[in-house]
């Protein structure tokens, strides 16, 4: 069986910027602390929510170190290290390993669509330079290339590629992975509105930025599935589905930071060209959060 | 609450043709009998599996009457009456009602893409001419037009449109319907590979031709969901998922008839231009059916 | 070289209905006469514009005969005979041949997506039963199945399949046909907004309902290309492009009939569920037609 | 009228790497010289073909300076400066201006899909910091975001955004731009297989890497259009279309470098994870180049 250090709700913190568009590390640490305290089963800095591709090398390194320091071994840490070039991906993977990350998450960033052979070689090269596990992350909407289930299966032949994160939102991909690879492969769902269907299909965990806003509902959904209580899982899912759809539709960094502000928590500023939600969108999000809050004490 | 005469596994029989490409009614009745005996919760003649759009008016009428006669009130009957023109849809709906159908299923067949207003008017006209319930059926892959969840919600304002059948395979459509319309709306899943996800999302039933080949697995999946046993539902789903994907990928009439032949049951011939599966496809299907058979006594 | 009885602007008349949704044959003949008088190089009744799939067999036959009578050998006639079943396609093809049609146009109508082999067999069966030429018509948006350029090339191996009509709007399909099949293959463009690009790519003709509204501009564009005058062709195309896009976006029967009304010509009524343009759409079309009229005397 | 310093064939050189995956500047200069000598009307370093996003800041600066030095004012120079962040895009734009570039080319690189307002603000900020013209470049396949024609129209309101490069391959986008913006707007085609259709539609120029392999055919096509000789333009296009399709299908850096090798010219190495064409692909490209060579003296 492949080693899988993660399960449950893996939470993705935002990266807060100050007025000069520099990272505010102390504020970032507060966000990490909130996520750990809320009961998240893992923390994933430098994800899509954390706008990793927009950061300089020095910023990425500071974020990695800050996370590891703040988490202090309470939960496992998954560090995003994807990069357009193999050289840089190796560099950041090695940095994460030395700093103490539990595992790294890698998507095949692409400007030019990569061939399957190029992608396999890319993962293989990185894997040979580190000894911690790799989560292969498929998200064509952001990374620009779609890894087929068959390719993901190929990647799992590389010894320390032990986890798959699927974010296409296509439940059939998960059926394929489970059917082809058996119950021992751990795959994670990265598409928020697919949370119920993915857990029903046997996903090991849920990689989500929603835990910044509604951690108790996210975790309760996972718990209901663990307890084999489909009715309860369904009820919990429908309580949160509007938020899950909204944050994906609007872009996670925008929606989560604005949501934090609505909850009275400083989400920090943005790195241009990314901007906050518009006034109308903010008002829509406020309505969704209020509806959740009014229901939340009932289940 | 809207009246919903169906639930569970609604089975779609094939339409068998003889060597002259005429319908073999006695053979058709045997298929109906098999489906009822197997425990199907409803029977749906003249569906996509039954190649309804390829039949003459007289053939459709003979099929409707044969079904009603054979079922003999043991389970409810859902008759497909979709047609390109409103006039013909009214005609076949009235025929079905008089013949004793429980309800009719209508998709907005289209050559020219219909506007939302045209679709609403079409359903409204038909609904005003009959008094049995209507299932609004969305399947863009066959009918040629995609009804958005918002449009389906509009159709449910028409008094006897009381059921939705969603066959896009997009689980988010079902989330929307349930969230927008509440627990009292009955929606049915028509996408076989989505069976587990749809039941998890709260689907009332599953419209499927798979019941011609593996009725016990289809029904057991429904039962597991009814018993709130997600683990068992998942196990049962993974036993049948390869078949569910195959029959959709190859076209239901081709795959089901060839599958019946493999099971030693006469599925009857085809109406040109539709043809049976190729030799390679037949061999692939044989492998899938054999794998299911070898597992089936284990759960 | 394959026999190609058509070239230039092939005009598609509408099918006018009366208040009881029956065809108004005398009014239809007036439309045919207008198209011939305007200089169209061919007439194509029972096309998509003529809502052929919505008609009964008797109606189709009456339309075919009325066209042949009215045209009286002045230009060649292309009769649409597509049908879901091979049997009916043969029937209508034979009727058209006996009635005196120059050629028939056939698209592989589909409810169930047809395989390539099924499509080839379908055309081959029909071709073997008639001796007039066949135009293979690819329009996935209406017929529901997309014939690849490679499949179209296969169809051209059938002796009397001598013409291709491509309506996907993808100019690369035409490049492929021309490159693979040489200058002797005649392919026709059925996508109105692609008229300039298709003629530039070497299309033999343009199958269009626009000739009901702006025949002089359609024919002048063809003439400019024949005269190798790209600058003039471009000018003429930009005069009409807004109309070409509009009629496709709104559906040809709706847009052409409403446009005829705006020009003071009785376009006749519709067959339900198809309806006329809305008030706003009619107003938009009026603006487009007025802009064309004000420019038309300048070139 | 907006200032448009480019027209005709704008050639995109490759970026050659040595065995350590460092840029080989002397070899790069030879490629620039070949393109200028062949009669290209402009040179565009740091484009997609030049794998700009994979380079470090220092590498980009060295390439910019090398190009300007080698071209020595013989033709205008268009430098690619796109970047995920606004800050870095400003930085590289200012560098290019100071170094002597004629204009800069900017696509809205995206990891998170940008909103229209974010894109406008991004261009506006960059435009306010430089005084040379900007070409707004739309290529969703590489940049990850699709700028609608309406958004491109909005961008043209910014004073020094004076040119559009459209690489979607959708000819209707160009019709829209020309129709909406008039004959004075200069738009460039960046989709190689669309070269004939785009020039027919009125494109001012063609941004292409094909000029590394078949500059004489590229330039002759442009000349034929300038001479209003559509027949000749069509003949020339069909001579090169197979190559144009191939290089796009396989990825420009891979296909162009391998093609250079086949022509006996050192194209240099790749930056991982990008790799050369496979053996089969190389053989296919060889066949295409040979067919062109054997025809080329005939027109």
From TrEMBL, chains A, B, C, D:
Q: What are the protein's GO molecular function terms? A: 4-hydroxy-tetrahydrodipicolinate synthase activity
Task: Name the InterPro entries for this protein.
Answer: Aldolase_TIM, DapA-like
Keywords in alphabetical order, please: Lyase
What Pfam families is this protein classified in? DHDPS
Name the CDD domains on file.
Answer: DHDPS-like (cd00408)
Say which domain of life the source belongs to. Answer: Bacteria
Q: Which residues bind pyruvate?
A: 49
The terms describing its cellular component in GO are: cytosol
Q: Which residues cross the membrane?
A: none
What residues make up the catalytic site? 137 (proton donor/acceptor), 165 (schiff-base intermediate with substrate)
Name the protein family: Belongs to the DapA family.
Its name, as the record gives it, is Dihydrodipicolinate synthetase
Which organism encodes this protein? Pedobacter cryoconitis
């Amino acid at each position: 069986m492949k080693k899988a250090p993660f399960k449950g709700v893996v939470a993705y913190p935002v990266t807060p910027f100050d007025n000069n568009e520099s990272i505010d590390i102390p504020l970032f640490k507060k966000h990490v602390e909130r996520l750990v305290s809320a009961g998240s089963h893992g923390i994933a800095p430098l994800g899509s929510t954390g706008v990793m591709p927009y950061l300089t090398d020095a910023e990425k390194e500071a974020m990695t170190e800050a996370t590891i320091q703040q988490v202090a071994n309470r939960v496992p840490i998954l560090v995003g290290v994807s990069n357009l070039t193999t050289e840089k991906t190796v560099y950041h993977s090695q940095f994460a390993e030395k700093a103490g990350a539990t595992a790294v998450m890698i998507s095949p960033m692409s400007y030019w669509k990569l061939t399957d052979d190029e992608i396999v070689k890319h993962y293989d090269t990185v894997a040979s330079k580190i000894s911690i596990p790799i989560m292969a992350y498929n998200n064509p909407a952001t990374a620009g290339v779609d890894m087929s289930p068959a390719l993901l299966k190929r990647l799992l032949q590389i010894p320390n590629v032990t986890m798959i994160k699927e974010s296409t939102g296509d439940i059939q991909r998960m059926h394929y992975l489970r059917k082809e690879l058996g119950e021992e492969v751990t795959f994670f769902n990265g598409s928020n509105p697919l949370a119920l269907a993915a857990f029903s299909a046997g996903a090991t965990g849920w990689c989500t930025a929603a835990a910044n806003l509604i951690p108790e509902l996210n975790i309760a959904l996972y718990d209901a599935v663990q307890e084999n209580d489909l009715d309860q899982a369904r009820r919990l899912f429908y309580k949160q589905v509007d938020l899950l759809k909204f944050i994906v539709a609007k872009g996670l960094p925008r929606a989560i930071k604005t949501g934090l502000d609505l909850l009275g928590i400083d989400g920090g500023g943005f790195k241009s060209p990314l901007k906050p939600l518009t006034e109308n969108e903010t008002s829509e999000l406020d309505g969704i959060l209020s509806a959740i809050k009014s229901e939340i004490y009932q289940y």
